[in-house]
Specification:
By secondary structure, the chain is an alpha+beta fold. The chain contains seven helices and 29 strands. The protein starts with 25 loop residues before the first strand and ends with a strand.
Length: 586
């Protein structure tokens, strides 16, 4: 295999004023030779667009991916019957001309050199054409073009190894940005992945389909595991931020175009295509053959869109939990989990079989009619599996789980508490802890100090307001020594605040909340709703007798009446807390 050094360039994201938001695409190209097919790839990002694939009987004839936002006359990636293929990443703005330009190129060009001539004669000096364009042809040639207009500027880089681009021009800014932006992060991540595979002689269509197009990464460039056993602060457990990832929340399709070897028919250039969000899709092959793709393609995209809605879980993550912007966070446990109920658990075996079967099929040198039949059968298999996956994902419910540090050994350390961490899956919208000693808490993560030693059964009850499903996790906690604040009175059994009840219960107007504190200690009484949101805070002054009473009038901090429902009163003093339940009926 031919080797070449690969230079990694650094750049700034270039923005143009007065244009629409960039489509955050990631593209790349790898050259071919006598033993290795050229490769071209793109992860397409276009928010709120339905992606489709069509054969266009124009010029050479070609199959291309387009979206309903821009229409079928604007190609976003494609291959023609001469084995010429093109993808792009817009720069500076989403431009309508880029899609028309690629549509015309697919109808006109047969080679990389022919594309150069096409660009020179296109007459776009005063047009709004801005982008990185990667191309391959049936000879194994590969090139990356940087094209800018006003005035027309074309920079061609012939590739004898590989090249990666996102939404910026490398030539304009050779220095790295002062702060990392998403396009820069995706560029570095993609270059690192592809560069590693190239150096190991293992860069192929399968890795680009399976690993590159579905890659999630932290801003540091390190891979995010799937599932992710952890939690970003203030986010549900197991959710992954995709705003910086190659596979992002706005990704609507992915293609890997696999060229031909010398002597193979150019029309056997294969466009591996995932219609819909790549993490939710199954990749199938298309060829530039009249009569394809079949109508199954629209079904593949629709099924992937339905699965995407459950992966990103936008509806259940809107106002109830205050996560913003939740749409960028993906539930990794719906992709893969120990119960083998995730999307990838069911999708990847079928995708693997399609990849293997296609390789064997193409080795038999099929004619045009056979390509049509194989495409339809393969797409049908993928659609059947995706529709089954969509049904399975709909049945995945919230799952309660938590961890705790079980044994306390410090007698009078105010900072020493039992820490409970919520590890519940699939974004529950409400939760309630019961600590086994009569105290409860509505907080997402909880801390609790036990007033006596013993063995306690702790429960965490969670619910999903969208489905009405609720479930509970239980764990036994062993407390081996006193935990709490010594109130200074030898022999007293009270070592922290206590909730003594509320009356009347239920209440309609006011509730008298009775409590007990270590003598001479002031406290705070916080009222929470079932979603864990703070509604009102009441003062609890110190009393010589230790016991006191606070009145809640059923109003929030702005003196507005709150709605009927269950509320929780959490009493806090000297770092300790106790929680009680109230029911308001208007």
């Amino acid at each position: 295999m031919k080797r070449a050094a690969v230079c990694i360039f650094s750049t700034l994201l270039i923005l143009a004023t007065g244009h629409e938001v960039l489509e955050s695409c990631t593209i790349g190209v790898a050259a071919g030779d006598e033993t290795r097919r050229p490769l071209l790839w793109k992860i397409r990002d276009c928010e709120d667009a339905e992606t489709r694939v069509t054969y266009a009987d124009s010029g050479h004839g070609f199959v291309h991916v387009w979206d309903t936002t821009h229409g079928p006359s604007r190609a976003r990636m494609g291959i023609n019957t001469r084995g010429f293929a093109i993808v792009n990443a817009d720069v500076a703005a989403r431009t309508e001309l880029n899609g028309t330009f690629m549509f015309d190129a697919l109808a006109t060009c047969a080679t990389v050199d022919g594309f150069q001539a096409f660009v020179d004669g296109y007459g776009v000096a005063q047009e709004d054409l801005h982008g990185n364009f990667a191309v391959i042809d049936s000879s194994g040639a590969a090139a990356m073009f940087e094209i800018r207009s006003n005035p027309l500027h074309v920079l061609r880089t012939d590739v004898d190894s590989f090249a990666v681009r996102t939404n910026f021009y490398l030539s304009l800014h050779p220095e790295p940005p002062g702060t990392l932006d998403p396009d820069w992060i995706r560029y570095l991540r993609s270059t690192a992945l592809v560069g590693g595979w190239w150096d190991e002689d293992v860069l192929d269509a399968r890795r680009l389909v399976r690993e590159h197009a579905r890659d999630f990464a932290y801003s540091s460039g390190n891979a995010v595991p799937v599932p992710r056993p952890g939690r970003t602060p203030n986010r549900p457990y197991g959710y992954v931020f995709t705003g910086n990832s190659i596979c992002g929340h706005t990704s609507t399709s992915a293609v890997v175009i696999e060229g031909v070897l010398p002597g193979e028919p150019p029309a056997r250039t294969t466009m591996w295509t995932a219609l819909g969000q790549p993490a939710a899709a199954i990749t199938v092959p298309y060829w530039p053959v009249p009569g394809t793709p079949s109508s199954t393609a629209d079904g593949l995209r629709a099924a992937a869109d339905a699965i995407r809605g459950r992966l990103f879980d936008v509806a259940s993550c809107s106002d109830t939990t205050g996560y913003d912007p939740c749409a960028r966070y993906l539930d990794s446990y719906r992709l893969r989990n120990d119960a083998l109920s995730g999307v990838w658990d069911h999708a990847f075996p079928v995708e693997d079989s399609i990849l293997v079967a296609t390789e064997a099929f193409l080795a038999g040198r099929p004619d045009t009619a056979a390509l049509r039949v194989f495409e339809r059968e393969t797409a049908g298999r993928a659609l059947t599996r995706l529709e089954a996956i969509a049904a399975v994902v709909e049945t995945i419910r919230v799952h309660a789980d938590f961890t705790a540090n079980h044994t306390m050994t410090c007698v009078s350390c105010p900072e020493d508490t039992v820490h409970f961490r919520n590890r519940s899956l699939h974004n529950p919208t409400s939760w309630l802890w019961s600590f086994g000693d009569g105290d409860t808490s509505p907080e997402y993560d909880a801390e609790h100090a036990y007033s006596e030693t013993g063995i306690f059964v702790v429960t965490l009850e969670i619910a999903d307001s969208l489905t009405g499903f609720a479930t509970t996790a239980r764990e036994t906690i062993t407390v081996t020594s006193w935990v709490g604040v010594d109130d200074g009175e030898p022999g007293t059994a009270m070592r922290g605040p206590r909730f003594l009840g509320a009356s009347p219960s239920p209440f309609a107007g006011e509730a008298a909340i009775r409590y007990a504190l270590p003598r001479g200690t002031a406290g705070r009484l916080d009222i929470y709703d079932v979603g864990g949101r703070l509604v009102r805070t009441l003062a609890c002054p110190a009393h010589d007798a230790g016991e006191g009473e606070a009145i809640w009038d059923g109003r929030d901090a702005s003196s507005r009446p709150v709605s009927s429902g269950v509320y929780y009163a959490r009493l806090t003093a000297k770092g300790r807390s106790a929680t009680g339940r109230l029911v308001l009926l208007r």
